[in-house]
Amino acid sequence: MELQMRIRIFAIFAQLVFLLGFLSSTVCIEESKFSCRESERVALLEFKGGLRDPHSLLSSWEGGDCCNWRGVSCNNETKHVVSIDLGYRQLFDGPSTTWRLSGEIKVSLLGLKYLNYLDFSYNDFGGIDIPEFIGSIRGLSYLNLSNAGFSGRIPPQLGNLSSLRYLDLNSFYSLHTLYTDDLEWLPRLSSLRFLDMNSVNLARIDDWFRAINMIRSLSALYLPNCLLKAMPAFLSFHNLTSLVTLDLSNNQFNSRIPNWLFNMSNLEYLNLQFNHFQGSIPDTFANLTSFETIKLGKNELVGPIPRSIRKLCSLRVLDLSSNNITDDVSALAEISSGCARDSLEVLNFRGNNLAGILSDWLEKLKKLIFLDLGNNLLQGSIPASIGNIPTLRNLFLNHNMLNGTLPESIGQLSDLTVLDVSYNSLTGIVSEVHFHRLSKLAHLSLGSNSFLMNMSSEWEPPFSLKLIGLLGLQAGAEISSMAAEKQREYNVLDLSCAEINDTAPDWIWNYLHHIFLLDLSHNQITGEVPGRLKYASMEHIDLSFNKFEGALPALPASIEYIDFSSNSFSGSISPLLGQPMLIFSHLFISDNLLNGTIPASLCHYSEMFAIDLSGNFLSGELPECLADFTSLSSLDLGNNKLHGEIPSSMGTFSWLQVLHLNNNSFHGELPMALSSCTRLVAFDVSDNKLSGEMPTWIGESLPFLKILRLRSNMFYGSIPREISLLTSLQILDLAGNNLSGTIPCSLGNMTAMALTHKPNERILAVFQRGIGSVLDNYGPSGYSESLFLVIKGRLLEYSKNLQYVASIDVSDNNLSGNLPHELFNLHGLQNLNFSGNNLTGKIPENIGQLELLESLDLSRNNIFGSIPASLSLLTYLSHLNLSHNKLSGRIPTGHQLQTLDDPSIYIGNPGLCGPPLEECKGNETYSTKLPVEDDEFDSEMLGFYIGIILGFVSGFWAIWGILLFSESIRYAYFQFIDRWLYPS
After folding, report:
1. Mean pLDDT of the chain
2. Angstrom distance (rounded) from CA 976 to CA 595
3. Which of 10, 779, 927, 943 has the highest count of CB atoms within 10 angstroms of its CB?
4. What residues does CATH 3.80.10.10 cover in the chain?
5. Nearest alpha-carbon partner for 543 in 572, 500, 577, 584
6. Full 3-state SS string of 462-486
């Protein structure tokens, strides 16, 4: 009985224990189902307290269940917070990029012990440092701080995140700069697979690759825009066997492409754009057996294409665009003869120097989808066999020297969507046969050829074009039929350079409701723009270089890009800027007849990228509200009647790359606030009334400057040595001021002027459309820099070739001292003008090193001595002025100097002789009346003393030699001495 009682009590106790356990687990399940960990909730709230969230993006961060808060994720079982995703792209649902989180990042995040995912990307933390304590969140496998407004040194504590697989520190779109002076922390990230450090300043690191090479797991590496300069030529080993993607574009490599880059067997994507690589492509391309993409665009590769390229058996995309490859195009036949012919889909050699004639090797590339050989030196005809590539969708052969007719076989390419053969010398008839099976054709570009379009009036095009590019074709009614009557869905219409010299055809204005881009530029179109333009739906309009007149037209609300430059529009710009709802980003109205002031309403469009109002009659002062243009990249207000001081508010233009205020009446000093415009490439305030000393901050704070023009102002003082820090400077124009002192020798350090082979890219390449784009020849290209420079004694305009100009002009100042011989190490100089100063000394002998010099003006100085013979070695010299100095001696002859036979080159130098002046007399080489330099004086004195000694010796032996060897003369001589000393 007692035993049964004990058993019953035990059973009841067990049931109670089970019931309590069940209730406890139920409570825990219910709690875990509806709530996160309290300690982590508190940590998140404390973290939120450090943020500034003016638009309440984190309004859901309240209550007890933090797992349901916006951007927070928890483990489904443990309810520990494992992810915080506050990236701007995740949170953003507002109308403006101002909807971003800012503030500080609280250390309370360390309370989230199980956090493995952290994303703060595309917010704006206002330039604060990356918190060091992030390196203590050991469980992180994903960290994204890209473009979040961090600045300063990357904390090496990030190297403690041994579980990290993804690290993104991309700063390309940030206003703040990250940097690091060592990468020793990187190899400790032993699990890292993805690393993006785009636009992180790595300029201080020479051995950057050694650290990268120790991360065996790395699959994707992005280091563009990092100011990298050195790349190892050889490696004893490399660990990057898992690397699939490598992006080293837009750096400062200036060497041959190292072979080890092509020993990475798994590499699929390689981007080396925008560097200065030299030499031929390494033969080790043959080792890339699984290579899928090669991009070496925008470098300076030179030399032939290696024949081993045919061994790239898995090659799908080959992009060597925008280099300096100088091979014959027939070398590409090696690809079609190798195993790559069965895999290659993209072949892009745009923007090189490929020459020769296309042949039938192209038809062997049976899988080719994209072919771009544009912007080369190809000649001959387009082979008819090109119609035998059934997969071809994009064909770019534009900007070459092709001739002959357009082969009718192109009409067989049923998949073709883009056909661009513009800017060649093609002739012949273009008929419906050329478009027979092109039912998918969307972009047609035939402009700048000599085609005769001949379509039957009964023909129904099989395609519906989106882009019609007939630039320069005078096809009359055929254009009307092609563009309007048969094509009702086109959204790009280019009739530029079509020799329209009347009012614009009515059909152009009748279909504005579906046009995205309209280009009527470079015609002679007269009349006013019709008012119905206001009801169009277009985004881009280019009416430049015509004869449109009247007031500026009303514009559609959808407009973004406006180019009305070089017309006869008159009146104020206020009505245009007073239209509500406009959102345009580019405004070009230069060279018209506009007057009045720049209205404050301009500032309603503060998100504009480019403004060009130059060449008008605008007056008044600049509005203070210009400070609101924080995204502005180019501002050109030159050649107007503006006055006042340059406002300090312009220092807010942190993205500004072009500033032209030339030929106005601005006065005062250059505001130091402009030193904040650190991205400036072109800075032109010439022909104003500015004064003060030339600022040192120009050299210290504007590292990317390529054009500096301060001419024709009232600047005084010396040329600051800091100018020599501008190693990218190509044009320095300080003429017509009151500068004094000597010319700094350090100007010889401006390395961009020493380059004899300059990069083949525009001064402002960043504003140009993308290479290989479908719209490569059409529509807006953004602001294009052009300058009027005084070269060869004349005012010359440079635009398309401006990137090749290297010039120094310090004429008409009060500079003194010698010509620094260091300046003549700038071998790439084309123009050198020191005229109208007080320079002395001799012309340096090394002047013959300026092999590209076209114009040299040293006139109106006090330079003396002879003209160096090396001057005759300057084979490009076409303008020379050495007049009104104190030069002497015979004028050198030979080579280029023989063609410069104008005597006025040498007038005002009375000591010069020889053609084209009077012949020299005898063997005279200089006039003794001219002052001589110290070393010349020393030489003459030495000769004088030697003459005295020789005269003494000669006189001594002339007398004592006779007395010694003639007894009668010696007897008579001493008798004479005795009678003279002792007269009787």
Report:
1. 81
2. 106
3. 779
4. 63-252
5. 500
6. CCCCCEEECCCCCCCHHHHHHHHHC
